[in-house]
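Continuing the batch. This is chain 6 of the set; chains 1 through 5 are on the previous pages. Same settings as before, nothing changed between runs. Recording input and output for traceability.
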Amino acid sequence: MSQPLSTVILAAGKGTRMKSSLPKVLHKIGAKSMVKHVIDASYQLNSEKIILIYGHGGEQLKANVIEDNLVWVEQKEQLGTGHAVQQILPHIDEEQVLILYGDVPLITAETLQNLLAVAPTKGIGLLTVDLPNPKGYGRIIRDAENNVVAIVEEKDANDEQKLVNEVNTGILTAPAALLKSWLANLSNNNAQQEYYLTDIIAMCAQEGYPIATAQPAEAAEVEGVNNRMQQATLERIYQQKQVEALMVEGVTFRDPARVDVRGSVKVGQDVAVDVNAIFEGDVELGNNVTIEANCIIRNSKIADGTLVKANSVIEDATIGEACFIGPFARIRPGSEFAEGVHIGNFVETKNTKIAKGSKANHLTYLGDSDIGSGVNVGAGTITCNYDGANKFRTTIEDSVFVGSNSSIVAPVTLAKGTTVGAGSTIVKSSAEDELVIARGKQRHIAGWQRPVKKK
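Output for chain 6:
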């Protein structure tokens, strides 16, 4: 194909069967809107222009689809696919036009490239698929020489035509000049009283232009979403593809059917993932990383040899080599751990840097902190970083030992080698190698009588 390419994406439908205030094409597959999947495929084709036809929920669509190379065209009335494509006429000239659908999210660039490759210079390239149960789809009608001569919609098909298994996917390509002439001659004289884009197939055949067909590698590529069940079906197919790709890269999944990939995951060798793991955004897992059950990893990098134990959440964080995280750890944005850091059960960190070999093994909150190497933070320790208006940082230098149930009130620095006695509330900085204790005085009252409940 030597002509420049304009890709048209139909996204004007209301999606009534979704029963949602959100435009249908903004519903997600793999944490990305359906229309964004289609836009991304269009970019891979090097489209010079991407035209998005919108209607229902246009403002929501524009607010959620932020792309530099989009031409927005409104379809004010929904009068069929042909009417929708008629709206693009002022925006096309002599280029090749490819027509896609915003609710067909699994279409691949490879399939579209195959379609463009077979498309005649003058004529139509049509994507079709053979279905064992074609009910509800427009049938591909061929003549005795196997040439495509028409597409007949289900409601307009006779009994013989309904036996045809080859169906129209709606995806097609044609030169703009011919497309303009065919669109100008569309009629709504049919059962739905709509302008069918598919009617241009018969026009093309009647004028003697060739119609070439291609098929997707899998039928799921061209399945549309009209309701929540169909959305769930495509979600599972999408997830299966993501997991299969990761297994090809060497990842071991305890159960491939119980993992969700909602973004991009890069992996090293010998990564192991247990059930119900969720990966969101951009995630990178180094060699020999193990993710146990029920973990959520979001926009984070985890280096070689790290173990993330069950029920942990890691978000916008960088985890160094050979760390131990969890179980039930919450690693929040801005957390950066060096090699060999241990973060145990019910420990939360946020905006905190922890150097090599330091440990916080139990029931601790470390926020807005800079923690040196070889530090031990006892159970129940809290960095008190917020005064109700502003946040302050805590600095804990190398080889500090913080006893259990301690509160460290920022801003404060615990110098190298400091030991904090258990149960202390620290409000002043320490010098190196000091023992710091700040407790209430313990009293002993002999013969104490406990209160007795009044009858």
